[in-house]
Amino acid sequence: MFKYIIKRLLQLIPVLFGVSLIVFFLMRVCAPDPAPIVLGQHATRESMEEWREANGLNEPVVTQYVDFIKGAVTGDLGTSYYTKAPVTKEIASRFPATVELAIIAIILAAIFGIIIGVVSSVKKNSIFDNGGMLLSLVGVSVPIFWLGIMLIILFSGILHWLPSSGRIDPSLRPDTVTGFMIIDSIIQGDTVALKDAVVHMVLPAVTLSLYSMAIIARMTRSSMLETLNQDYIRTARAKGISEGKVTRKHALRNAMLPVTTVIGLQLGSLLGGAVLTESVYAWPGIGNYTVQCIMKSDFPVVQGVVLLIAVIFVLMNLIVDVIYAFLDPRIKFEKKEV
Amino acid sequence: MLLEVKDLETEFKVKRGTVKAVNGVSFEVDKGEILAVVGESGSGKSVTSLSVMGLIRDPGRVAGGEILFNGENLLKKSTKEMQAVRGDKISMIFQEPMTSLNPVYRVKDQIMETILTHTTMNKKEALKRAIEMLDLVGIPAPEQRVNDYPHQMSGGMRQRVMIAMALACDPELLIADEPTTALDVTIQAQILDLINRLREKLGMAVLLITHDLGVVAETADKVVVMYCGRVVEQATVEQLFTKPLHPYTQGLLDSIPKMDEDRERLYMIKGIVPDPIHLPKGCSFADRCDKCMEKCREHMPKLSVTEDGRKVRCFLVSDEVEGE
Questions:
Q1: How confident is the model at residue A333 (pLDDT cuts 50, 70, 90)?
Q2: Contact A240/B83, CB-based, under 8 Å?
Q3: Where are the domains of chain A?
């Protein structure tokens, strides 16, 4: 297993190389020249030229790329054109917000998705099944920004139950330890801040989780239906164990294999920044920030974020594969002597 | 009498109509006896056995008849009461040993689950019992193999595990649904021999579902021949093999190659099994029968009892008509 993980991590190198190549050249080909955006519309030709020279944009593209890779290998992804702060720092300050939101959303999505999927499959063609599948059809088809706005109008605008934007009331903000608002307020024993952070989390998390929940519910249902038809389920029934136990112990564990993959990949894409959700709720995460940086042609930041997303995706895939081996004894990554 | 099936009817509702997979089947199994149910695919033999187990699921249902086990009608029992019977008093093994065990649990967990469900044993005792059972069914080094996952075992081994699991609670009746069909010939013989030996040792009865007359001749005491959801002939093994009365049974026996005969081609029953939704009006076998008469196409013969106690459903033997 250890050997396998190392092997997979080594495979990360060519992936990152390829991703960096694509994003680097795409930005240079497609994005507008950053100089006038950075310096403002009244900038002179000379000052722009000077700025380009200072930021290495006058070098041949290949040289620029080589410089970028040289820096990236040592952990230096450059500095933002605007804030002059290192890209790693810029990302690090926003990433926890995205991670916190993504993890809570995927937990909600997994719990409700699996419950809906299992109930739908066990009570196939019943009202639960139809209702659950209607909900997941809505979940995959509703545009996230529209759903977000509707929820804000209802729960924030009309009912005044929940705040419409941000992570926490700025006056309650706990000192940053981990960057995770909920964990930080727990560490500092600040229940008022904790409550406020949780309340701020509800709408974005629900909005973000709906799509993943729908995908997980559909996957769970179809996987359960297939598993419930297997011979070993009949064997389990023939043993005289209760139907509930047949479902939970014998069917669900087998049906969870493909569902695990879906959950892992969904989490991977949520961690890459939920652009729309973060925009609607003004969530200070990485998705929202990246979009702004693309608009402003902040090349180093965009490159850094895309590399980070690639790493996350590869790691999520690896984690899913490792979990697989624990769930299914038939999967062994190394040849065991029999 | 251990098991009495009386006029059992099991049907499946499908889009095209209702399939009467089992249509008025009756038979008895005595304590310690092996009854073989023979028939080709679609004759209703597996559905009969699943009906006895109470494992018929939507869109199927048992539509009529009685299944008396030690005098109690199993069809009248609640879901919970049937769960107590399954795996304890009546247990079952299946055709596909490769897929009948849950791939994600160790063999010991699967055997122990049956024991823990039906007895008051604790886990330690149940594990001991599981190892004993593996030993009983002839698995070498049971203390080690009990920790294996199903995929680490061969098909024959897995079927032995299935048998161990089925017998773990000393059932009075073992239903074996084509237990050897998926296994190769040498393993087949071993498994049949095992079932036979355990039957003698443990005194249980066996309901053996098979399409293989060789298996029947080797193991069974009595035989029920099924065709299109009905019993067409019932006899002792000796009677059946020495003098089959129903043309279908005769056809089945004639299509087995014999050592002492020199024939170029084997006999073949012509045609195919009729569509179960649109069964012919008279005898279901009429279209395929070499001895078909006019009235066979009009009326269904009754399962009548002959002088030597056999039962046959054919106008060649008796003129009685079903339902008259």
A1: low
A2: yes
A3: 2-73, 88-327
Residue B318 maps to a domain: no
Choosing from B117, B141, B170, the residue where a domain stops is B170
Cα(B156)–Cα(B138) distance, rounded to whole angstroms?
Answer: 11
Q: How many helices (H) and strands (E) does chain A have?
A: 15, 0
Cβ distance B101 to B110 under 8 Å? yes
Report DSSP state, residue B291: T
DSSP string, A281-314: TT--SHHHHHHHHHHTT-HHHHHHHHHHHHHHHH
Place A182 in a pLDDT band, splitting at 50, 70 and 90: confident
Q: Which residues of B touch A234 (CB under 8 A)?
A: 55, 94, 100
Q: What residues in B contact A232, CB-CB < 8 Å?
A: 99-103
pLDDT digits (tens, 9 = 90+) for B214-254: 889 888 999 999 999 999 999 999 999 999 999 999 988 88
Contact B100 A231 (CB under 8 A): yes
Give the residues across from B60 on adjacent strands: B12
Tens-digit pLDDT profile for residues A196-248: 888 899 999 999 999 999 999 999 999 999 999 999 999 999 999 999 999 99
Nearest-angstrom CA–CA distance, B55 and B82: 10
Helix, strand counts (H, E) of chain B:
11, 12
What percent of chain B is predicted at pLDDT more than 90?
A: 59
Q: How far is A210 from chain B (nearest CA, A)?
A: 31
Residues of chain A contacting B113 with CB distance shorter than 8 Å: 239, 241
Compute the distance between CA of residue B202 and CA of residue B36 in angstroms, rounded to an integer. 19
**Residues B4-33: tens digit of each pLDDT:** 999 999 999 988 888 999 999 999 999 999
Chain B residues 60-99 with CB within 8 Å of chain A: 79-80, 82-88, 91-92, 94, 96, 99
If asked whether residues B219 and B200 sit together in one domain, one would say yes
CATH 3.20.20.80 fits A88-327, yes or no: no
Q: Which of B128, B144, B170 is the last residue of a domain?
A: B170
Cβ <8 Å between B88 and A237: no
- Tally the domains of chain B: 2
